[in-house]
Design brief:
It comes from Temnothorax longispinosus. By secondary structure, the protein is mainly alpha-helical. The protein is about 75% helix and about 0% strand.
């Protein structure tokens, strides 16, 4: 936390001065508005849909793997139980 605090305080321009400069800049240059970087990104990048799709896909694959692993373990358990019960009966 101290490192984050020191990084926040170690700015070339204090936040209030930066805000004042931004307002003065837009007043001095009416056509030179401050443009957000989001204007050059597609809506997929703006809304992080690609990131959410990647996370959802990974989560789905992990759940599917766990499901099939449990199904495999249950089938091995019942096969072992069936083999064991047949061996004792004869």
């Amino acid at each position: 936390m101290k490192q984050l605090s020191s990084e926040f305080r170690d700015r070339p321009i204090p936040p209030l001065d930066l805000a004042i400069w931004s307002v003065e800049y837009t007043v001095r240059h009416p056509n030179g508005t401050l443009v957000t970087p989001l204007r050059s990104q597609s809506w997929i990048e703006q809304n992080l849909i690609d990131v959410y799709a990647f996370l959802f896909l990974n989560f789905f694959i992990i759940l599917l793997s766990i499901f099939f692993l449990i199904k495999l373990l249950i089938s091995f358990y019942y096969a072992f139980k069936l083999r064991k019960s047949k061996g004792h009966c004869t």
